[in-house]
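Thread: quick sanity check before group meeting

JM: Hey all, I'm pulling together slides for Thursday and realized we never actually wrote out the predicted structure for the chain we discussed last week. Dropping the sequence here so it's in one place. If anyone has concerns about the input, flag it before I start.
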Amino acid sequence: MLGAANLRGARMQDANLAGAMAADADFSGAWLPGANFTGADLRRARFDGDTVLLSAKLDDMTCLADVRWNGVPVATIEWQGVKQLGDEFLARLSGQGGKTEDALESYERAVRAYRLLAISTWYKISPAPTGIARAFDK
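JM (edit): ok, ran it. Output follows.
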């Protein structure tokens, strides 16, 4: 369990972080090429433009809600095995439980994960209009 670990600038090439509970962890400036994040909980984690995620591995169980991408080049991550984010998987499970409020909260979390990922991708390929994508850099 990494929790809110400060991993700023850590050199962790090919690190096995599969299933890691790394919610709120700070990976700013970390060197993580080839890192295995399959099944990891990265909710609210922080990255930045100096973070290296080249060939990092994610899967359908990796949770990314409220991640602060802050300019990390997400296109360098291995997305081939990701058909859905772990946040969506968990939302679908909670929807089967019968509690409408829990399911709604889980789906809202999944939507935020996809939205922030899309904004991060868009932000890297086009200049951001004032106040939209830049608001997510903080």
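AS: nice. DSSP finds two helices and no strands in the chain. Residues 49 and 72 are 4 Å apart (CA to CA).
JM: adding both to the slides.
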